[in-house]
Inverse folding.
């Protein structure tokens, strides 16, 4: 049986990742080297530091992905890399590495859209998900509600007008002095808090766009005025407001477009409360739900390989003149 082996590279932000995936769905290896410790002392990702770290890490990470997959580079059928959106210096490291390997190994290259890769993390583990689908893509840089009628075909129903959901988590955590990245820390604290503070639910019943900047400000103002409030209660109440807005809109969209299912993707999709709420709402509405494993929600290269294989099968390879594009958009 032929195995279509994709070696994929992801360096759009602060994770250096490489994976080998067969047929767009069988993950033979997925290596993620996180730079979190390097950036934590600055309270966020420092672009110049991130690109230098990618340069140091990229070769060992790719080598490890090949070794863990038990393959030789001659077995690779396609070399893929995220080409945008993301930090330009970081993207350039992955794209240059992938193009160089493709050239030397005489293999085709494909540049992948990072947002499409997050969407395809759903199909990685459940390749036969029935369409149409609504996907809620929530990460550090994006908050989008997307309708998918067919593979590689998207309609953006709504997106954030200001901060992304993950950005709001990170900014609230930074204000509270909790460290970086804030999402997992708030998620953890929220387990033992009470949702007693009624934070605003911005734009809850106003279409499909989102706005999290005002919510973040109201959390900060509340903490200033009520310094003795347990941090766990702040975390739980903030998280309830975010999840309420995300899930209410995702449910409405799924019903409106007659979707068969509702999926989530992106780093914030690793959030325990969001995962639970999406499963609940799908159960109530008779929708198929799909929540990827946490390791495929945050940045990884296996999702890049899944999207790469799908794109390559439809559109063929990218030219070796293809560059990185920090502002790449999801094609509609
Ligand atoms: O997808 P991702 O790894 O990188 C981007 O493409 O942005 O997402 C990173 C974001 C960060 O803002 C991080 O705080 C958030 O995802 N995040 C979470 C959780 N894990 C990561 N947010 C809430 N709960 C989590 N468990
Ligand atoms: Zn991402």
């Amino acid at each position: 049986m032929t195995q279509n082996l994709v070696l994929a590279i992801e360096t759009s932000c602060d994770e250096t990742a490489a994976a080998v995936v067969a047929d767009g769905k069988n993950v033979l290896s997925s290596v993620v080297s996180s730079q979190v410790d390097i950036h934590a002392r600055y309270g966020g990702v420092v672009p110049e530091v991130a690109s230098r770290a990618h340069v140091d890490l990229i070769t060992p990470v790719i080598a490890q992905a090949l070794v863990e997959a038990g393959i030789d580079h001659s077995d690779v059928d396609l070399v893929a890399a995220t080409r945008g959106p993301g930090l330009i210096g970081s993207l350039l490291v992955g794209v240059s590495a992938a193009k160089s390997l493709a050239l030397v190994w005489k293999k085709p290259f494909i540049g992948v859209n990072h947002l499409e890769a997050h969407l395809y993390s759903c199909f990685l583990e459940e390749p036969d998900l029935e369409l149409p689908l609504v996907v809620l893509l929530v990460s550090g840089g994006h908050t989008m509600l997307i309708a998918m009628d067919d593979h590689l075909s998207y309609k953006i129903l709504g997106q954030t007008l200001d901060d992304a959901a993950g950005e709001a988590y990170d900014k609230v955590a930074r204000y509270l002095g909790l460290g970086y990245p804030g999402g997992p820390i708030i998620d953890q604290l929220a387990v033992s808090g009470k949702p007693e503070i009624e934070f605003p639910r911005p734009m809850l019943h106003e279409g499909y766009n989102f706005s999290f900047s005002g919510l973040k400000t109201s959390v900060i103002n509340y903490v200033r005025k009520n310094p003795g409030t347990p941090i766990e209660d702040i975390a739980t109440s903030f998280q309830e407001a975010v999840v309420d807005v995300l899930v209410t809109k995702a449910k409405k969209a799924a019903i409106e477009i007659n979707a068969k299912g509702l999926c989530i993707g992106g780093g914030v999709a690793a959030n325990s409360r969001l995962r639970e709420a999406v499963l609940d709402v799908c159960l109530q509405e008779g929708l198929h739900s799909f929540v990827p494993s946490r390791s495929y929600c945050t940045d990884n290269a296996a999702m890049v390989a899944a999207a790469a294989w799908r794109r390559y099968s439809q559109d063929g390879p990218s030219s070796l003149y293809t560059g990185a594009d920090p502002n790449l958009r999801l094609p509609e």
